[in-house]
Amino acid sequence: MKKALIISSVLLFFTVTTSAQTPTYKELSATAYNLIKGQDYIGAHKAFHTMDSLYGISDFEALYYYYALSHDFVHDSEAEKALMFRLAQNKCCDMRYLDDWARSQQADTLDYWNDIVAIVAPRGYQDTVYQNRLLAMNRANNAARQMQNNTQDSVRDAMRMVNSANLSELKQLIAERGFPTCSKVGYYCVKYASAIALYQPLEFLHWYLEQAKAAADSSDYDPEWLGYLIDRDRRESIYDTVFYSRIEAMFQADQEARHLLKSDMDQASAWSIIHKVDSANLIALEQLIAERGFPTLSKLGYKCCDYAALIAQHSPPEYLHWFLEQAQAAADSGDFIPSWIAYMTDRDLDHQDKPQLYGTQGHTRDGLTGMYLIEDVEHLNERRRSMELGPIEDYLPYMDMPDFYFHPSLVNYRQYSLNLRIEGDTLRVSGFYLIPYDTTTYSGQPIKVDTAYSLPLADYRMADGAIVLRRESNWYPHKNGELLTAQVHIKADDYYIIGGTEWLPSFDIHLVLLPKDKYARKVIDTPTRPFHFYRLASDTTQYPDAYYNEFVDSYNYYCSFFGDTLSSKPMNIVEIGDPQFVMCQSLRDMIILGHYFYDVYTMIPDFSWIPHEVAHQWWGDGIFFEYRDYALGESLTEYIKLQYLKSRGRGYEEQIEYYKATMEMAEKTLPIADIRSLESQDESIAIYHTAPYRLTLEDTVTVNTALRQLYSKYKHTIVNREVFLQECKTLQSWLKFE
Questions:
Q1: Please, how many CA atoms are within 13 Å of residue 269, restricted to the half-sphere of its CB?
Q2: pLDDT value at 482 more than 50
Q3: Closest CA to 156 of 228, 311, 164
């Protein structure tokens, strides 16, 4: 609703300004992007269309958005195709981009953009006939794997038919037009041909690999796909057909028995059958190894080692331990599969009641699957990588785990599992909460933390042993390692968790975890809401009660000024001892400050920064300004702070004198009438410190009424300068905006 109000205000603004003249390119662009932010995509498409009709869009971002919106509203039209054609002509995209976009739209590149491909073909496709035939094979592959009635047998049967047909077609294609290399047919033909060859019989796969190696010797084959072919060839090779045929039968029996766990059969009966199969497989494996030797890669090949390790993994502890010792000796010389060493090591440690090393073993109880305990969690992915295992995040779906956590029956404390990961320039945060297993309120499932959220990476930093997520311009790694690149697992009872309730952290805007052994908490209850002050335990400086009262008094004043108490949750004031953090930051229900500001308070209490940061709870956290108007938002906060200083009866005159001096200095270098946006330090000073004084020269009732109405109408939304001026017409002469 608020977004809609912003959008309507923007449109109203343009209705007023365009009655006399045609809107500029910049104005139309601002309107289009505001409509996108407000999720009015039809309106945005019309705005981009108007821009293009009047001026002709040339920049990539606007063209891209115009095309994306056209795809939704005029799909498969000549207009849509023409836009992509322009993107290609301007070299704003290449074949990799086209291919990714086509797949996201479930369309084949050549089928959809034949003419466009012709423009960029030298960068992607050199043989479109080759490409079209490979695309048909690829479509068949994908269709077989995405069968709606995808039982194991039906998928296997479909894949056999597809692979057989694709093999014949690929052989014929190569015979007619040559082996696919990058210089001859382009990167994507190499990619699709390699993908099809991967699933062909070993004889053809091996022949194809030899041709690919020869091309790679002259840098004419994609090294990534060559690696896939080599790995597949290694995995498919069988050096002892007798061993393989017998171990494959054991593998099939093992898998069929375990599929019963997902059938309608009751679990007890299924496990009874599984135990019988495991016992029979153990006897057969012992006999097979006695007859033909222990399976190694050089002696028997990958598949024999793979299947034998699986059977051993499901054997009793004593035999698993013996098998692991033999496999480890072979692995030391590169003659056994590293990933199976990791699986068997973890299972062996579990049998000994020791924490696992590689995170391969889960524990299911009362309907919840969680991890067995793990040694040195922070370096888990490093150990997994050394054993040719992917990151733990990729493994969790195979264990039916939404996130990484230890099963609560294995630990005696509350668990917060916070998944903090970096994607490009964005930090994404999600998580859940598990209470101890023996509590009467345990539900058998993790309690999810609200919804995941994300903000630009530059908005966060960590400091002083605490994980602190806050808006700031720099990025600092945690002193114990860059924890934000993976999951963070904490013993909840050892931390103050600020940013939510006692039980669940809130991920709305911010989160702070403070070690209790490093921080002390002072609680002050007030009729409006409680205040929690967190100070470094090592900080023994005594501060007067006036310091705490300043927060409470200014908060109560602003409650009255805005008619909004914000929240009944604790108001948190957190001291960060990081010497590099020499600023204050206001977040919703929280003010974070460097230790430096305690000293500032004792030096100039009447000019205190405290009322300024508290005012930001409404004007800055309750209502937001666009970044370009950062100083505008700060100046309004300073004006509101002046009202508080005036009401308390001290500090007001001194602050006014300071503002007047600043204004005189600023106007000598930058006249206020020339201010347009936050583009220079002079301009920032002029708006930040001069505007509050200029506002005090206006009628106080008029100014206060306008600001209160703006806050009431737009709280919890982002306001740009145009909306501000539209809503606060009585203040338009304030900065002399034209």
A1: 6
A2: no
A3: 164
The whole-number average pLDDT for the span 54-67 is 80
How confident is the model over 699-715, as a mean pLDDT?
A: 90
CB 696, CB 660: distance < 8 Å: no
Cβ(183)–Cβ(126) below 8 Å: yes
Cα–Cα distances in angstroms (integers) from residue 301 to residues 207, 233, 483, in the given order = 18, 10, 39
Q: What pLDDT does 348 receive?
A: 96
SS3 556: helix
Residue 357 has what pLDDT? 95
Dihedral of the alpha carbons of 521, 526, 530, 536, in degrees to the nearest 10: -20
| Cα–Cα dist 645/639, whole Å | 10
How far is residue 180's CA from residue 198's CA, in Å, rounded to a whole number?
14
Angle, helices 60-73 vs 41-54, to 10°: value is 130
Q: What is the DSSP code (8-state) at residue 449?
A: P
Residue 520 host element (H or E): strand 519-524
Give the model's confidence band at 420: pLDDT under 50 very low, under 70 low, under 90 confident, else very high: low
Burial 122-160 (b: 16+ CB within 10 A, else e): eebbbbbebbebbbebbebbeebeeeeeeeeeeeeebbe
**Which stretch of DSSP H or E encloses residue 7?**
helix 2-17
Lowest mean pLDDT among 193-202, 561-570, 611-620, 676-685: 676-685
Whether residue 88 contacts residue 119, with contact meaning beta carbons closer than 8 Å, is answered with yes
**261: which residues sit within 8 A by CB, 6+ positions away?**
267, 270, 271, 274
